[in-house]
């Protein structure tokens, strides 16, 4: 993928001498972004051990302690550093658990999109002809509707088909499926474009002359050479998926309030914003923005390093 | 040109066909009109007779053709909740959404072109860096959060003054945080009726104040994308030979930037931008929810809440039509303004 020093170099040596690491060392924004991202992910993953209380455990919730402000405002309780939400859950704990849900859905949805998009993109690019025309027309139509619209419609349909209770119970896998279905065209287009560029190269001809199967040529020979654009859009897509999940949750088509993601926390706080409890909405909102921002900044950096012209043309 | 037009229209019809099949499949599988028409006590045999009479037992294709024939005449049946034709319900909500989209589009065009061009002409100026920084932050803020923050700042105010009150700027910032800006953040106010069911917010100053916060929120989602797009395109155009030649000829920089370079910058912006303006309709669902703006998006969410299947289906068809029309128009305009597109063949 990046520069190779010698055929015998270990993976570590190759990484150490790579342009990727070189440019990372010189880019302060990328370093800070990665640091913040790692801290946020670690806090989310370790939420059960870090959080002062378990927001899913009804026994720990004290409704009398609801809508307490964060520590820097008068009237706060030192037991709740970031204050509490409308149900008396500790906001810091709820945010940590919420970030966990958001990240799981974000990464899951991107894995889903990538699986669909890479397969369709490879097929369209390699086989060409009618398959290509059909898949790309489908992608065009879906993209012209904006991924958010598709996600909302599919979410609404799932909710109507399964009913509200079942939908809430299986919200995580359903959201992964919905966002995956809504955003696969991004991958398919990128992969198809790289496949078209690779297809004419000699190693592909050589593989074909050797009599390898189309599937083997697509997945073992062409796919590894399309990885760098896939990495770049994956970063941006994780950010998009997290925002999409938050939007769906905000509209009531996502995570239920009993198992909140950052988006449903913002939604539940929004109902109380008129009464002055702005922190229930704005603190999870700030966490969401920081999370998405650092992923976007990393994506920008990665795009500049790996493929500056990806978003063009 | 004619061949291009026919090809585009055929494509648009094909897309509408796909949308209508999906919409009909939703109606066919989720909506049971019999249940809506008769009470609990009606026996199964009578339900079956009614089903037969209404043709609900016909094959899928026959029922679809009936649906399509009605759809062409904009007849999608009655809304369960409002008990009136769904198209009437949509038409009542359409102006609010269109005005919101129009106001946002105006903001986007008015801001993104100067900012994008400026940051391309002076890529190293601190103001350009500031704009680029703000735009990547803007991309990372979900539209409903922008809306909530705007409401908090300009309609409610925060009960918290963190800045030192003894300095001038601190007092000013505290003042900004704690007092409400007096902006309305709920609904449309009293729009002025224009003709028929169309009421406008543009005709009165009071109506415009209701439009300000929702329009800014909606614009905030697309503005960063447009600024980045225009900047990137302009930077590339400024590298091209004809701009260098114009410089060498001694044409004034202003003329080069705004007459020669901007024209070619706008070509890709039209295609991407036109489509994005269409997708603003999708984001109105979020903005309208926050501001309780009585448009189609809010109506659609209500319809989902109440399982008003005919209204959902009608919304999908109408929004699908809006998307298809904008996309087709964008393609045609692009074909007209870009002389390198072969209008007879595929657009480049």
UniProtKB/TrEMBL annotation, chain A:
<dbReference type="InterPro" id="IPR050366">
    <property type="entry name" value="BP-dependent_transpt_permease"/>
</dbReference>
<feature type="transmembrane region" description="Helical">
    <location>
        <begin position="278"/>
        <end position="299"/>
    </location>
</feature>
<dbReference type="InterPro" id="IPR000515">
    <property type="entry name" value="MetI-like"/>
</dbReference>
<keyword id="KW-1133">Transmembrane helix</keyword>
<feature type="transmembrane region" description="Helical">
    <location>
        <begin position="222"/>
        <end position="243"/>
    </location>
</feature>
<dbReference type="InterPro" id="IPR035906">
    <property type="entry name" value="MetI-like_sf"/>
</dbReference>
<dbReference type="InterPro" id="IPR025966">
    <property type="entry name" value="OppC_N"/>
</dbReference>
<dbReference type="Pfam" id="PF12911">
    <property type="entry name" value="OppC_N"/>
</dbReference>
<dbReference type="GO" id="GO:0005886">
    <property type="term" value="C:plasma membrane"/>
</dbReference>
<comment type="similarity">
    <text>Belongs to the binding-protein-dependent transport system permease family.</text>
</comment>
<feature type="transmembrane region" description="Helical">
    <location>
        <begin position="28"/>
        <end position="51"/>
    </location>
</feature>
<keyword id="KW-0472">Membrane</keyword>
<protein>
    <submittedName>
        <fullName>ABC transporter permease</fullName>
    </submittedName>
</protein>
<feature type="transmembrane region" description="Helical">
    <location>
        <begin position="167"/>
        <end position="184"/>
    </location>
</feature>
<dbReference type="GO" id="GO:0055085">
    <property type="term" value="P:transmembrane transport"/>
</dbReference>
<keyword id="KW-0812">Transmembrane</keyword>
<feature type="domain" description="ABC transmembrane type-1">
    <location>
        <begin position="99"/>
        <end position="299"/>
    </location>
</feature>
<dbReference type="Pfam" id="PF00528">
    <property type="entry name" value="BPD_transp_1"/>
</dbReference>
<feature type="transmembrane region" description="Helical">
    <location>
        <begin position="101"/>
        <end position="129"/>
    </location>
</feature>
<keyword id="KW-0813">Transport</keyword>
<feature type="transmembrane region" description="Helical">
    <location>
        <begin position="141"/>
        <end position="161"/>
    </location>
</feature>
<keyword id="KW-1003">Cell membrane</keyword>
From TrEMBL, chain B:
<feature type="transmembrane region" description="Helical">
    <location>
        <begin position="309"/>
        <end position="337"/>
    </location>
</feature>
<keyword id="KW-1133">Transmembrane helix</keyword>
<protein>
    <submittedName>
        <fullName>ABC transporter permease</fullName>
    </submittedName>
</protein>
<dbReference type="Pfam" id="PF00528">
    <property type="entry name" value="BPD_transp_1"/>
</dbReference>
<feature type="transmembrane region" description="Helical">
    <location>
        <begin position="100"/>
        <end position="118"/>
    </location>
</feature>
<feature type="transmembrane region" description="Helical">
    <location>
        <begin position="208"/>
        <end position="230"/>
    </location>
</feature>
<feature type="transmembrane region" description="Helical">
    <location>
        <begin position="130"/>
        <end position="156"/>
    </location>
</feature>
<keyword id="KW-0812">Transmembrane</keyword>
<dbReference type="InterPro" id="IPR045621">
    <property type="entry name" value="BPD_transp_1_N"/>
</dbReference>
<keyword id="KW-0813">Transport</keyword>
<comment type="similarity">
    <text>Belongs to the binding-protein-dependent transport system permease family.</text>
</comment>
<keyword id="KW-1003">Cell membrane</keyword>
<dbReference type="GO" id="GO:0005886">
    <property type="term" value="C:plasma membrane"/>
</dbReference>
<feature type="transmembrane region" description="Helical">
    <location>
        <begin position="9"/>
        <end position="27"/>
    </location>
</feature>
<dbReference type="InterPro" id="IPR000515">
    <property type="entry name" value="MetI-like"/>
</dbReference>
<feature type="transmembrane region" description="Helical">
    <location>
        <begin position="265"/>
        <end position="286"/>
    </location>
</feature>
<feature type="domain" description="ABC transmembrane type-1">
    <location>
        <begin position="94"/>
        <end position="334"/>
    </location>
</feature>
<dbReference type="GO" id="GO:0055085">
    <property type="term" value="P:transmembrane transport"/>
</dbReference>
<keyword id="KW-0472">Membrane</keyword>
<dbReference type="InterPro" id="IPR035906">
    <property type="entry name" value="MetI-like_sf"/>
</dbReference>
<dbReference type="Pfam" id="PF19300">
    <property type="entry name" value="BPD_transp_1_N"/>
</dbReference>
């Amino acid at each position: 993928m990046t520069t190779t020093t010698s055929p015998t170099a270990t993976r570590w040596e190759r990484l150490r001498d790579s342009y990727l690491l070189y440019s990372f060392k010189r880019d302060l924004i990328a370093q800070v972004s990665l640091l913040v991202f790692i801290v946020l992910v670690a806090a989310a993953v370790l939420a059960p051990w870090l959080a002062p209380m378990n927001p899913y455990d009804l026994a720990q919730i004290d409704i009398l302690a609801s809508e307490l402000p964060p520590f820097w405002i008068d009237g706060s309780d030192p037991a709740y550093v970031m204050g509490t939400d409308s149900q008396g859950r500790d906001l810091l704990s709820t945010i940590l658990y919420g970030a966990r849900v958001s990240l799981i859905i974000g990464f899951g949805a991107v894995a889903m999109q990538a699986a669909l998009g890479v397969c369709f993109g490879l097929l369209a690019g390699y086989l060409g002809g009618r398959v290509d025309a059909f898949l790309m027309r489908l992608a065009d139509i879906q993209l012209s509707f904006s991924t958010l619209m598709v996600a909302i419609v599919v979410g609404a349909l799932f909710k109507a088909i399964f009913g509200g209770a079942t939908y809430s119970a299986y919200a995580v896998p359903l959201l992964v499926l919905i966002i995956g279905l809504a955003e696969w065209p991004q991958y398919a287009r990128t992969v198809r474009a790289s496949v078209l560029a690779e297809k004419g190269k000699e190693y592909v001809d050589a593989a074909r002359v050797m009599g390898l199967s189309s599937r083997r040529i697509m997945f073992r020979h062409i796919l590894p050479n399309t990885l760098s654009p896939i990495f770049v859009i994956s970063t941006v897509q994780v950010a998009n998926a997290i925002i999409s999940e938050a939007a769906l949750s905000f509209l009531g088509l996502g995570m239920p309030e009993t198992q909140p993601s950052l988006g449903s926390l913002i939604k539940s706080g929004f109902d109380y914003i008129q009464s002055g409890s702005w922190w229930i909405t704005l603190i999870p909102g700030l966490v969401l923005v920081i999370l998405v921002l650092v992923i976007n900044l990393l994506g920008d950096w990665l795009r500049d390093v790996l493929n500056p012209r990806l978003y063009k043309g | 040109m004619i061949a291009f037009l026919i090809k585009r229209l055929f494509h648009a019809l094909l897309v509408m066909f796909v949308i209508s099949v999906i919409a009909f499949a939703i109606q066919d599988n989720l909506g049971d009109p019999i249940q809506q028409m008769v009470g609990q006590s009606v026996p199964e045999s009578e339900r079956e007779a009614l089903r037969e009479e209404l043709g609900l037992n016909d094959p899928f294709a026959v029922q679809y053709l009936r649906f399509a024939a009605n759809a062409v005449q904009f007849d999608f049946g009655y809304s369960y909740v409002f008990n009136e034709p769904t198209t009437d319900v949509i038409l009542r909500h359409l102006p609010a959404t269109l005005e919101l989209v129009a106001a946002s589009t105006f903001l986007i065009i008015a801001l993104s072109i100067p900012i994008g061009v400026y940051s391309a002409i002076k890529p190293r100026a601190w103001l350009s860096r500031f704009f680029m920084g703000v735009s990547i932050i803007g991309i990372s803020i979900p539209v409903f959060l922008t809306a909530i923050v705007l409401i908090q700042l300009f309609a409610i105010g925060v009960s918290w003054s963190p800045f030192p009150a003894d300095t001038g700027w601190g007092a000013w910032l505290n003042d900004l945080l704690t007092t409400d800006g007096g902006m309305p953040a709920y609904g449309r106010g009293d729009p002025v009726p224009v003709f028929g069911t169309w009421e406008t917010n543009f005709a009165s100053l009071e109506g415009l104040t209701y439009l300000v916060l929702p329009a800014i929120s909606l614009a905030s989602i697309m503005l960063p994308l447009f600024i980045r797009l225009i900047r990137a395109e302009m930077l590339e155009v400024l590298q091209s030979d004809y701009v260098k030649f114009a410089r060498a000829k001694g044409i004034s920089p202003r003329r080069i930037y705004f007459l020669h370079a901007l024209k070619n910058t706008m070509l890709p912006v039209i295609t991407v931008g036109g489509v994005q303006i269409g997708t603003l309709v999708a984001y109105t669902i979020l903005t309208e929810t926050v501001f309780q703006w009585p448009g189609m998006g809010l109506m659609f969410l209500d319809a989902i809440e109440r399982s008003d299947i005919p209204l959902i289906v009608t919304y999908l068809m109408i929004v699908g039509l809006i998307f298809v029309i904008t996309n087709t128009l964008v393609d045609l305009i692009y074909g007209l303004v870009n002389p390198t597109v072969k209008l007879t063949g595929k657009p480049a």
